[in-house]
Design goal:
Layout: H1 2-28, E1 39-48, E2 52-64, E3 67-78, E4 85-86, E5 97-98, E6 103-119, E7 128-144, E8 146-152, E9 159-165, E10 178-181, E11 192-206, E12 213-225, E13 246-260
Antiparallel strand pairs: 1-2, 1-13, 2-3, 3-6, 4-5, 6-7, 7-11, 8-9, 8-10, 11-12, 12-13
């Protein structure tokens, strides 16, 4: 009797151990076990309607089963809608430049927000739909644009080439005297900071095959507002423009990352 009881206990414990080991294996592999992973981190690439691209990092943590608190850090460039790339037609090897552009602007957005689940995944082949919103500082860095300028010499068809910061008030900075853009980092030490605020709203679709992976497409709108006008493009007699304090842009981004406990 004792031997039979011991045998059944051994078989029962062995089956429990095997089941637990299988559950752990499924859990660690991010398989079909639909559990709540409390933490996640992701990197993103985005394109936006203000004329550029950007990078994004997010770190989220569940506060309820369907709601996450998310910190994000985003870096994008912003262009004026009237920027047009051109070249000097009189010189075959001239470099492209944006005539009238005074500053190149890059924006850094450290923000906090919440992400809410509208529809959870039913299985690994389905899609989870979420919406999110963020607020935070918008730090715009404006770097002056430097150009290579042509100067006449006493010899016909020979010119001196100098690197100068573009100024719409300099008569020698007319379009026919510009050979092209200077090296990008020229004038980096003259960069000015324009602090402001941003807000964002996005709708995202998560479609990773494993529950502990993240593959997300997100689309939405971002608004950046600044107390001062950022001087991106100069106003000329041929092209009157106005610079802005508020930039509204549509964006689409792709995120990839991991979830864990």
């Amino acid at each position: 009797m004792f031997k039979r009881l011991a045998f059944f206990l051994f078989v029962f414990c062995a089956s429990l151990t095997a089941s637990a080991q299988d559950a752990i294996t499924v859990l660690e592999s991010g398989g079909d076990l639909n559990v709540l992973y409390r933490n996640e981190a992701s990197f993103g690439l985005l394109a936006h309607s203000s004329g550029g691209f950007g990078l994004n990092y997010r770190r989220g943590k569940h506060v309820t089963a369907k709601r996450k608190r998310v910190f994000e850090f985003e870096a994008v460039n912003i262009r004026h809608p009237k920027e047009v790339k051109t070249v000097n037609p009189y010189f075959e090897n001239s470099k492209g430049f944006y005539y009238g552009k005074m500053n190149s602007v890059f924006v850094f957005r450290p923000g906090i927000g919440f992400q809410n689940t509208l529809f959870r995944k039913g299985d690994v082949k389905s899609v989870e739909i979420r919406y999110s919103y963020f607020i935070g500082p918008s730090l715009a860095f404006a770097k002056p644009v430097y150009l290579e300028i042509l100067h006449d010499t006493p010899k016909a068809y020979e010119f001196d080439l100098t690197t100068e910061k573009y100024s719409p008030n300099n008569p020698n900075h007319s379009i026919e005297n510009i050979y092209g853009r200077a090296p990008y980092f020229k004038g980096f030490e003259e960069t000015k900071l324009y602090p402001g605020l941003y807000g964002k709203f996005g709708l995202s679709f998560e479609f990773a095959d494993l529950h502990d992976d993240l593959k997300v497409i997100e689309a939405g709108v971002t608004v950046d507002a600044y107390p001062k006008v950022i001087p991106i493009l100069a106003s000329t007699s041929n092209s009157p423009v106005s610079n802005r304090q508020v930039y509204t842009s549509l964006y689409i981004s792709f995120f990839f990352g991991k979830k864990w406990f």
